[in-house]
Design a protein that fits this description.
134 residues; mainly alpha; 2 domains; 5 helices
């Protein structure tokens, strides 16, 4: 089955993304209810690390054929569920892949750049919105 733009693939991503987003919301709600609203970063950290762990495991299981996983199931889990849960998991897998391919300098540049520029982007977005508000 081609994984290009067919309806089954798009449906799997849509359904998985919805599930992942709801789980992310529930985890954030649970953590902030127990630890306090000031610890929303703890929920994000937990989500990012957990998502990274899960995407690494799903990727490896699907690559080694340790479990029977169709391409559609892989897309549902990795792009859909984990994409909705956290895109940080994809970033982490990109880093692992670069290191495994022997591109350590690029992995370090990519990782550092993603964190630094991601932070700067978020920071500048906040500043821009604040500047535009009356």
């Amino acid at each position: 089955m081609s994984t290009a733009l067919d309806w089954r693939t798009l449906g799997a991503i849509l359904l998985g993304g919805g599930i992942g987003s709801i789980v992310r919301y529930l985890v954030t709600l649970l953590v902030t209810q127990r630890a306090g609203a000031g610890y929303s970063w703890g929920a994000t950290l937990l989500i990012n690390v957990t998502g990274s762990l899960i995407i690494g495991a799903v990727f490896e299981l699907s690559q080694t054929r340790a479990i029977g996983m169709s391409q559609l199931t892989r897309i549902f889990l990795m792009t859909g569920v984990l994409g909705g849960f956290t895109t940080f998991s994809t970033f982490s897998l990109d880093m692992v892949t670069l290191v495994a391919d022997g591109a350590m300098p690029l992995a370090l540049l990519y990782g550092t750049g993603s964190v630094v520029f991601g932070f700067l982007g978020a920071f500048l977005g906040v500043i821009a919105v604040r500047a535009l508000q009356p």
